[in-house]
Amino acid sequence: MNTSRRAAHLPLLAGAGIALLAALWAGLVRLGWRLPAWPPIAAGQHGPLMVSGFLGTLISLERAVALSYARREDARYRLAYAAPACAALSTLAMLAGGPAWLSRGLALAAAIGLAAIFGTILRQQRTDAHLVMGLGALLWAAGNGLWLAGQPVARVVPWWVGFLIVTIAGERLELGRVRWPSAGQQWAFYGAAAVVVAGLLISLAAFSAGVRVAGAGLVLLGLWLLRYDVARRTIRLAGLTRFMAACLLPGYVWLAFGGALWLWLGGGYLAGPYYDALLHTLMIGFTLSMIFGHAPIILPAVLGLPVLYQPSFYLHLALLHLSLALRVTGDLAGLPGWRAWGGLLNEVAVVVFLANTALAAARSTRRAEGQAQ
Asked: DSSP of 35-64, one letter per residue?
């Protein structure tokens, strides 16, 4: 990647970074840590900042980069960058205290843009992976549409969770790390995803029942990925391959466990400890663990910088899962101190991840420069 292209990505990455920092700060405030509200609106926007501001910007940017580079002879494909730009602007609108319709409208535009990217890809190359990820983008758009229409965040969250889980499952297919063993097992995957989508649709009329149905689908999807992802074999290897498997396998366990909580508790908890467990088993245990595992592959494509594996990566991975176990135990057992400390250590794990990744990129760059001399 040339320097000018890399520099063009920096404002979007900065927007994602600002969203992440604000979301982490707001998360600590929501957990009860006595911190000043910074910015004043952030404490109530933890979820939107994390999903649309941070993850939405990164996922859209990754897809825009892939599409624009594949078709770099046609300048029209650079319009794909409008999707991550809208996601980043949504963050700025939230943090600036702008009208709700503005930040929510920009988030919806970002989701529609991501769906359009996958629509373009599917016209050129129809694959299972792109179909699945396109479905994920549509779930994000539906959730953001409900948010723009005035639905409370707690009722929108299942759609955002569906977006992230379905998109990540599609990325596993795209990377060739999940193969269809047979036609029946292929349909089992699609069946599990269909149950998730059906539950989300049911939730529009009967929220709690819909959450339970979607939870059943999440359990099925988590068990399917545990059974058929090649991580079960690559965990026996070494280096980055083993580290990725070590991120994926516990992530799939959290996915199945979180789905089981949805199936058990339904939509009766829209705040409090049970709601915290319903949400963060999936958003931290699954989603962040997947990000930790895929970052050494995806970040070089976006940044144009190598990120070579370092054994220190296991530090942020272990801290993430141990702290989440502490947090969820506190949620379910009525131990608020465990929940608060687990949440704090969750965020420390994210900060350590960012530091380890930055150090690995710096070391990799120095090594590459030394070999070039």
From this structure: ---SSTTGGGGHHHIIIIIIIIHHHHHHHH
Where helices occur in 175-288 by DSSP H, the ranges are: 183-203, 207-228, 231-234, 239-265, 272-280
Question: Measured between alpha carbons, how far is 361 from 50 in angstroms, rounded to an integer?
Answer: 24
Q: What is the pLDDT of residues 185-232, one digit of tens each?
A: 888 999 999 999 999 999 999 999 999 999 999 999 999 999 988 888
Can you tell me the distance from the alpha carbon of 179 to that of 45, in angstroms, rounded to the nearest whole number?
38
pLDDT band at 371; cut points 50, 70, 90 = low
Contact 239, 255 (CB under 8 A): no
pTM here is 0.91
Boundaries of every domain in the chain? 1-126
Average pLDDT over residues 88-109: 93
pLDDT winner (highest mean) among 78-92, 262-276, 319-333: 319-333
Q: Read off φ and ψ for residue 74, nearest 5 degrees.
A: -115, 110
Comparing C-alpha atoms, which of 225, 257, 259 is closest to residue 324?
257
Whether 306 has a pLDDT exceeding 80, the answer reads no
CB neighbour list of residue 356: distance below 8 Å, 6 or more residues apart: 310, 312, 313, 315, 316
Rounded CA-CA distance 119/137 in Å is: 10
pLDDT over threshold 70, residue 73: no
* Burial class of residue 98 (count of CB atoms within 10 Å of its CB; 0-12, 13-18, 19+): middle
Residue type, 92: L
Whole-number Cα distances in Å, 325 to 272, 280, 309, 322, 334? 17, 10, 26, 5, 14
Distances in Å between the Cα of 292 and the Cα atoms of 12, 315, 316, 335 are: 20, 11, 8, 28
Peptide linkage before 39 cis (omega within 30 of 0)? yes
Q: Are 229 and 172 in contact (CB under 8 A)?
A: yes
- CB-CB contact of 73 with 127 (8 Å): no
Mean of the pLDDT values across residues 312-320? 96
The structure tokens listed for 275 are 């709601």
Alpha carbons 139 and 88: distance in angstroms, whole number? 19
